[in-house]
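Risk register update: the risk of archive-format incompatibility is retired. Evidence:
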Amino acid sequence: MKLTLHAHQLELAHTFGISRERYDRQPTLIACLESGGKKGYGEATSNPYYGVTVEGLIKEIEKARSAVEAFPQTDPEAFYALLENLELTPFARCALDLACNDLHGKLLGKPLYAIWGTAARDLPVTNFTIGLDAPEKMVAKMQERPWPVYKIKLGTDRDVALVRELRQHTDAVFRVDANCAWTAGETLDNARALKELGVEFIEQPLPADDWEGMEQVAHGSVLPIIADESCIVESDVDRCGLHFNGINIKLTKCGGLTPARRMIRRGRELGLKIMVGCMTESTVGISAIAQLLPQLDYVDMDGALLLRSDIARGVVITDDAEVILPETGGSGVVLTADL
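Archived output:
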């Protein structure tokens, strides 16, 4: 296989805010694996919370280049075993694993969801994320993008009042994500008020390592609680099964589609609701997430919708929130530079 790396700065349509940061652009790395006349694409974004930079990703992948390019097959499971032996970080493994899966499907001429034996019907609707901002700006973003399901970023001392203000402007389903900003007591109090405001669930209200607080919340919350920062890699799923109602799997954090599918299977065994989320990826990463849709209860794959301009074509999400999966093989991704 031939490996090529492309660094990009994804410009956001609006400043995006969560409880711990605000940003206007998202650095990202696109990995391309080429074999048999086909190109497979994968993506991993930078992330300050996890100390990940595009420059760092390039350095570690370059160290693995010779082993990757010499690997004699494109079977994703075998390829992922190689990546684990190379001791790459999950973000680096993600870029390469997504590229391998895309290439594998393109060589077979089948989309990944079909290779996995799933059917593209009854797919969950992605939420559209409203970043934390002044109330009037959050309302304006909702009005700019009417949508059936919104995920509202929270993390202030006025969160319930903020949701109450947003509720006056839409009947859409709300999901809220506090990004580790609340205490157990705040979560229990907020959950009661938010349930009355039509909130479906709360995502990661407590710091990732506050397992004692999460046990209190798990037994007392009137709303389901979904793990995000507490569920990073495969080994986290079992512990989350004791403290959460569901898990939000991020491909970049866990290492790609291959481990994500194992996490989905284990989560199902534990009776957890399954969500897959994004990290403001381009359509490269979002198209990979889309292949998992038949296996999910919830999905947050609006990353490309938040961009001022995209760098790829693949899955299409219409203005009516309908998902149109590519008919080509793999994830169906093509970089616009290749068109």
